[in-house]
Amino acid sequence: MSRCPPPPLPSRAVQFRTLTLGLFLLSASGVAQTASPLPSLTLEDALARLAEAPSVTAARLSVQVAQQNYAAARNALGLSVSVNGSAGYSGGSASTAADGSTVNTPSSVSGSAGVQVSLGLLPWASSQTGLQASARSLTLAEARLSETQASTRLNVYAQYLAAVVAGQDVALANQTLAFRQRQQAVAQAQADLGNATPESVLSAGADVLTAQASALNAAADLDAARRNLAALLNVDLTDTVFSSQPPSTFTLPDLPALVTRARMSSRAILQARNDLADAQDTLNTQQRDANLPTLNASLRYGPAGSGGLSANLNVKDGTAGVGYTLPLGGSAGADRLSASLTGSYVVYSPGVRAQVSAAQASVTQAQLSLNAAQSDAELNVRTRYSAAQTATINLKTSETQVQVAQAGLDAAGLRLSAGTGTQDDVTAAQIALAQAQRNLLQARSTAQQALVQLENSVY
């Protein structure tokens, strides 16, 4: 009479899986009970800290300096007030007249005190052109501030989203590593029972090493993104969790409006316009030097010797002045009105004509540079718009890949329930789904950054 064989003992692989699952659940339970929540940073919080970024602070200080320079130029408008004075002493002397008598000249003290006010009166006075230059500098400084804020905002988006994607990479790499380690244990157990070759064990070990390298790279990428964002915002982000996710849908702005704005108000356009205005001011100055005479007019009412009320006008410099001088000591004499007019005109000077020609060439070159800057600005907007369109198309592709991976996981679960599949098949499908979701996250991050770059193209 034969005896029934005893039931087969669980394989070492099954025992290992059971033990691993028990240890994992035990450790997870302990971590959940003892770990404290990590600090969290949302994308909105990071963007709210833009004002603290060093680059933005420096640009804001430049705007403040430009505002002060403009206010000083506008308030003074070339006004200059000065005081002057003089003093003199002449000792007494004796001389012999023609008739042999002695003539004694007494000593005398003389002096004067006065005030002088000058003002840039004509449109081409240096104070007027200086005011215009200060206004252009202020506009350019404000444009640079906007450009710096936009660039820093883009960097915040890039580093924050890189940290989000890196965090997903860390989770995926750890999941893959656990799966490869489990496969290695199974291969080793099968080799111990003589059901696997040494090559399969080595291959499983190589897969573990590859997964470990991927996990290390993902952790390094997360640390780099965290440090870059911390340096950008000038805050400590150690162990910070990045909780925001990029949006799932995106709407592209109106292209013609972006092109018009970029051609009008971008920083490069304002810089080119300032260069053109400076070149035009230089040309105007050279043309005045060549065409206007050096003409000075003055008018004085007061004692015959010196002092009294005076006024003057310099036509070429565009300045006018008024002053009053009070004579001290000596005989003032009767008041009277005196006027003078002096001037000169360059009839022939090749050097002056050459300077005018050079200034005209500079204006032409500056105009061409402005045209080129406008074309470059439009090209930049259209290029970034195309990149944003491509990113939205790739986003739809990634969404489809997630659906395909989800369908694969569902099929693997059905095969496991029917007994025609294994748990490893389900785990592999789960990892494939996690990879597809990671790719979708990366695609959304790329699309959001492309949209921000498109918005920044107008600065």
TrEMBL record:
It comes from the Bacteria. SUPFAM superfamilies: Outer membrane efflux proteins (OEP). InterPro entries: OMP_efflux, TolC-like. It is found in: Cell outer membrane. Residues 1-34 form the signal peptide. Its main location: membrane. PANTHER family: OUTER MEMBRANE PROTEIN TOLC. Belongs to the outer membrane factor (OMF) (TC 1.B.17) family. This is TolC family protein. It comes from Deinococcus oregonensis. The lineage of its organism: Bacteria, Thermotogati, Deinococcota, Deinococci, Deinococcales.
